[in-house]
Write a structure and sequence with these properties.
By secondary structure, the protein is an alpha/beta fold. It contains ten helices and six strands; from the N terminus they run βαβαββαβαβαααααα. α3 runs antiparallel to α6. The longest helix is centred in the first third of the chain and has 18 residues.
Length: about 270
């Protein structure tokens, strides 16, 4: 089975805002579902829209990508909000949208919604239809040429929904991957164990020659613990390093133009 999955809205065309951001979370879910499905041999392609500046262009770009692929199923990941957009304590829940008068996608939508609810405790909306909702006014559903569903994972304005989503993020992603592919995925704990067992070894326990002096200086000044010098650094790690440097040096960091120059000269350095 070939699947194309995309996150809703885009980098410049933002979606629902609340306790969490729809675009940010839809991208997280899309990427995680893709990773889980690929690990079990599913042919799945992910897409994030990063260029459109209007809603129409955004939807058209997403649809165009889906229709350019050879696939059996189109999936769009979204998060929902209420008409008022006010933060609420009550549970609101999960639903999955499908094309009107399409039995195939109605059944699938119900399966996906129930799988998410079962995995996380999120309220199953429209329980008579197992969380499936028919829509005839959405560009994604109307214009993609394969079978298509649109997943509304939870409501961004519900404290209960967001708590369950964050607590059971991996379980939700496994539920989506399993239900859209029709295959049983390893449990989140097992997947983590597989990932750990098959992870690539550290890229190097010693610094490159061109970086050795700086690396030893960093250790001596308490900026780093001296472990894994050739591994990638996250943004929080980089900021922590800079913060430590500012404390020991007791000087202001270079002005922004110099920082940009440092990034240009060393940010993409390769051995």
């Amino acid at each position: 089975m070939n699947i194309v999955i995309s996150s809703g809205h885009g980098l410049y065309v933002r979606g629902a805002q609340g306790l969490i951001d729809e675009v940010d979370e839809a991208r997280r879910v899309t990427d995680r579902v893709t990773t889980i499905a690929k690990a079990t041999g599913i042919n799945i392609t992910a897409f994030h829209e990063n260029t459109a500046r209007t809603q129409a262009d955004n939807v058209n770009s997403i649809v165009r990508f889906h229709n350019s692929q050879q696939r059996d199923l189109d999936v769009s990941i979204h998060f929902n909000s209420t008409a008022t957009g006010k933060i609420e304590d009550r549970a609101i829940g999960v639903e999955v949208l499908h094309r009107e008068n399409n039995q195939q996608t109605q059944v699938l939508a119900g399966q996906v919604a129930k799988a998410i609810s079962d995995a996380s405790g999120l309220l199953l909306r429209h329980q008579r239809d197992s969380g499936a909702v028919a829509r005839n006014n959405l560009g994604f559903l109307n214009n993609t040429t394969a079978a298509a569903i649109l997943v509304e994972v939870c409501f961004v304005v519900s404290r209960t929904d967001v708590r369950l989503y964050q607590q059971y993020f991996d379980e939700i992603c496994h539920a989506i991957a399993s239900s859209i592919s029709g295959q049983v995925m390893p449990s989140p704990d097992l997947s983590a164990a597989i990932t750990s067992a098959t992870a690539l070894p550290s890229s190097g326990s010693q610094p490159s020659e061109w970086a050795r002096e700086a690396w030893e200086w960093g250790i001596a000044n308490g900026l780093t613990d001296g472990i894994s010098p050739q591994n990638s650094a996250t943004r929080e790690q980089m900021l922590t390093l800079l913060h430590r440097y500012s404390k020991i040096n007791k000087k202001q960091l270079p002005p922004e133009p110099k920082l940009r120059a440092l990034h240009r000269d060393f940010g993409d350095r390769r051995d």
